[in-house]
Amino acid sequence: MMAGRTFGFKLAASFGLTLALTLLMTATSVLALRYVMTTKDDVIKSATTSLVGAEELSRTMERRIGGYRAFLLNKQTEWLNATNADRALFLTQVNNLRSSLADDPTALKLLEAVSTDEATHNTVVSDLITKRQNMAVLNIDLLNDPRAKPARDALLAAIDALISRVHATVDKATTESNDRATAAIIFIIGLGLVLIVGSAAVAWRLSRDLRREVGAAVGHIQSSSAQLEAAAAQQANGGRDQASAMSEITTTISELLITSRQIADSAQRVSKVAEDTADAARTGDATIDQTRASITAIRTQVDQIVQHMLALGEKSQQIGGVVDLVSELAEQTNILAINATIEASGAGEWGRRFAVVAEEIRKLADRTAGSAKEIRTMIEDVRGAVNTTVMATEIGAKAVDAGSRQFDDATNSFRRIAQLVATTSDATREIELSTKQQTTAVEQVNAAASDTARASRETEASAVQTRQTAAHLGTLSGDLLDLVGSGRH
Questions:
Q1: Cβ neighbours around 7 below 10 Å, total
Q2: Which residues contact 446 (CB under 8 A, 6 or more apart)?
């Protein structure tokens, strides 16, 4: 077993470290080269702008001097235009140099001296040009004016001093750039040496760890191979015993498989009977539901009869009130008829006719009172019949309710029977399913036992092979120790 981190991890870490150092060197080299290139570009730019610009001043001024002297000689306008154009170009170049020499105060002072000397020289040249324009024939003294040469020499000297200063600045920048390039090269070489030393140290450390860890691993392998050889011998003996035991187990499982199949067939028949019983219970439940619906309809009709009989009783009471009113009217009419007869008797001849009418009214009132008494008697009979009918109907309704409750009890019993039958059917199905699963499991166990017996025989053969392999592994571990240079343990 390896101590600490795995060798693969150490190898990956070492490769990562070497790769990081290589990338660091590459990045540093690129940065150093870019720095050197930038410095060189600055020097080239300075030489292109400052030095070339200063030398252009000298050439432009020489062209102007030649131009105005040619005008003094031949008084041609083209030379005057040329010298004026050269002065304008000179002034433009001076302005451009001010921006490129902004970082060099000494060069700027020299440039200002050039500007001052040019202005002095231009004053002398302009005076000479004016005089020549007013002369028809050249006067040789004009060419030899004592002011022209000192002004020209002073201007050219100032330009030469500026050029010398720019040359010195460019040379200094070139030297500094070369020094930076040399330092960058030395730095890259030093970094490369550090990378080489680091890579060598990593390789030495990996080699040392490899020898140590492989040696330890080989020692474990040799020890394990000896143990493996002994275990293989025991395994071979155990494999033979296991094969014999598995043969006996296979015989027992075959008998269990036959029994499981018989139980499955019996459970299937019980499940069929339970399903038939459940169908019959469901049919009886439907019949009881229809009977309950009929009893409910009868109970509803009985309730309606009771309501109608009660309504008939109320109507008979109302008729009795009307009969009482009629009886009272008949009595009052009878009294009035008697009073009218008495009054008619006292009226003499004139009251006879009225007495006859009053008598007829009294007789009519008597018949009305008698009819009212008969109606009252009939109403009483009707009330008695209504009460009797209501009581009989209530008794019938109670009997219907009792029958309904008995049907409910019977329905609940049927439903419990149906539930029990359904439970029995489900349990039978579960038994059937479990038996089938058990049969399948037994078949699988039988197959597994056969496989195990075969595997036991194969294990016995492989144990012998493992013993031989363990012996060969010990030989290979010794060769591996010789390969890594650790010597044999």
A1: 16
A2: 250, 253, 254, 257
DSSP code for 305: H
**Per-residue pLDDT reduced to its tens digit, 416-431:** 756 776 776 776 677 6
* Tens-digit pLDDT profile for residues 287-343: 767 767 876 886 787 688 778 877 877 887 787 787 788 888 878 888 887 887 787
CB crowding 79-89: b at 16 or more within 10 Å, else e: bbebbbebbeb
Residue that the structure tokens 């001296």 belong to? 113
Q: Kindly report the CA angle at 186 between 44 and 172, in degrees rounded to 5? A: 30
Q: Which residues contact 97 (CB under 8 A, 6 or more apart)?
A: 50, 53, 54, 57, 111
**Reported pTM:** 0.38
How far is it, in rounded angstroms, from Cα 128 to Cα 79?
A: 14
Residue 412: burial class (beta carbons within 10 Å; 0-12, 13-18, 19+): exposed
The token pair at 352 is: 């006879």
Q: Which CATH class is domain 259-450?
A: mainly alpha
Q: How far is CA 235 from the centre of its chain?
A: 53
Q: Are 459 and 469 in contact (CB under 8 A)?
A: no
Q: Can you count the helices (H) and strands (E) in the chain? A: 7, 0
For the chain, the structural domain boundaries read: 7-226, 259-450
Answer positive or negative: Cα dihedral of 274, 279, 284, 290: positive
Give the C-alpha separation, 375 to 234, whole Å. 125
Distance CA 397, CA 405 (A): 12
Q: CB neighbours of 190 closer than 8 A, spacing ≥ 6? A: none
Nearest Cα residue to 467 out of 158, 170, 235, 300? 235
The separation between the first and the last C-alpha atoms of the chain, rounded to the nearest angstrom, is: 16
Q: Compute how many other C-beta atoms are within 10 angstroms of the C-beta atom of residue 249.
A: 17
Distance CA 462, CA 476 (A): 20
Q: 436-457 as b/e, with b when 16 or more CB fall inside 10 Å?
A: bebbeebeebbebbeebbebbe
| DSSP H or E segment with residue 402 | helix 352-484
User: What are φ and ψ of residue 486, in 5° steps?
Assistant: -95, -10
